Amino acid sequence: MDYAKACMDEHPSKVKRDERISREEIRRLYDLPLMDLVYRAASIHREHWNPNDIQMSTLVSIKTGACPEDCSYCTQSSRYETGLKYEPLMAVQEVMKQAHEAKAAGSNRLCMGAAWREVKDGPQFDAVLEMVKGVKSLGMEACVTLGMLKEHQAARLAEVGLDYYNHNLDTSPENYCNVITTRTFQDRLDTLEAVRKAGIHVCSGGILGMGENREDRVGLLHELANLPEPPHSVPINKLMRMPGTPMADAEPIDDIEFVRTVAVARIIMPKARVRLSAGRVEMTPAMQALCFVAGANSMFAGEKLLTAANPGQDKDMAMLESFGMNVEVSPYQDDH
Ligand code: SAM
Ligand code: DTB
Ligand code: SF4
User: Fold this and answer.
1) Residue 111 belongs to domain spanning
2) 75 touches 308 (CB < 8 A)
């Protein structure tokens, strides 16, 4: 893959915005000695959160595969031979069944993902609105990730009570076109803006281990922290190298670099949930503990993410018990 290509020309508006934090300040945080960085992150974490609590979300893939986008990391893109089975949009009743199970297993948030490029008005979007209503009726928080979104669609999601919309910036603006060519970084920012304007909480983060360099990780966090409002939730995914995708053989991210990224995210976005997202199956409990010390306070429950593996209930509960950590049961603890 050609990582030399810089994609800034596709992102013309970015330089003008007022900054909450500069790239230089973020670089300096990354450069701190690890002990100082993690100590600072852990201290800030304690000011805003109970460090022994963790929030669990369950993912449900409501429409799987056959996606027209070309995201180089994704099994669901129709461009790559990944062997994934296409599943059309799930029935509302089936989603409700999974929501009940997720609640019983300790999740207070259900995150529904569709392999769509963008939301289209019509019966499928109407069905997703019903799913959100149903999840809310169980007293759970609802999150969806449906691709690009327009303002009137965000308003409809807000009307049915959607709590979070997940849409990741994935990487720095300079590296974006090396990962995805079918939409631009600016498209992603526009969707996040529509979500914010509708009053829905923004969940946005990225992926580490796609062959990006330190400056790309700095650039990703810089963009997230300088959104018009910092995101309420920041998923940090470790690339799951999925066979058949262009990133199947990417060099894995160094563990300590991953921990540094979690710590910097916690320091510059103190009130956000920092979610230890994809890739936990490749992390030891000790590595995950380090991420929690560095300020991660949320993760995905269950044996499956959207299409890839996740540690599952038994392993996770044993791990959390050994750390003396508690799973948060009641929702709406992020609103402060
Ligand atoms: N199609 C929608 C979109 O792209 O916005 C929603 C689903 S998409 C699978 C949600 C996010 O999952 C992506 O933005 C990406 O950050 C993450 N993701 C997908 N495949 C991944 C992988 N193999 N490893 C790590 N994270 C991944
Ligand atoms: C996010 O940042 N990570 C989740 C969620 N948002 C939708 C998805 C991870 C997907 C991992 C790869 C897969 O399951 O196919
Ligand atoms: Fe489609 Fe989302 Fe996968 Fe990209 S990440 S190929 S948009 S499902």
Assistant:
1) 3-7+33-327
2) yes
Does 268 fall in a domain? yes
* Whole-number CA gyration radius for the chain: 19
Report the candidate in 80, 119, 64 with the shortest Cα–Cα distance to residue 304.
Answer: 64
Q: Are strands 206-208 and 201-203 parallel, antiparallel or unpaired?
A: unpaired
C-alpha 127: how far from chain center = 23
Nearest to 224 by CA among 19, 47, 36: 19
Instruction: Give the number of the atom of ligand 1 that is nearest the alpha carbon of residue 235.
Output: 16
CATH number of the domain encompassing residue 192: 3.20.20.70
Nearest in space to 262 (alpha carbons), one of 273, 251, 246: 273
Calculate the alpha carbon distances from 51 to 38, 41, 190 in Å: 13, 11, 33
> Within 13 Å and on the Cβ side, how many CA atoms surround 95?
30
**Token output for 135:** 């999840």
Encode pLDDT of 210-265 as tens digits.
999 999 999 999 999 999 999 999 999 999 999 999 999 999 999 999 999 999 99
Q: How many domains does the chain have?
A: 1
- The C-alpha atoms of residue 318 and residue 298 are separated, in whole angstroms, by 16
Eight-state DSSP code of residue 222: H
Query: How many whole angstroms from 66 Cα to the centroid of ligand 1?
Result: 14
- Name the residue of 71, 74, 164, 172 whose CB sits within 8 Å of the most ligand 1 atoms, as the mutation to test its pocket: 74
| Helices (H), ranges, the chain | 23-31, 34-48, 92-104, 123-137, 151-159, 176-179, 185-197, 214-225, 255-268, 285-293, 313-323
Residue 240 per-residue DSSP state: P
* pLDDT of amino acid 16: 55
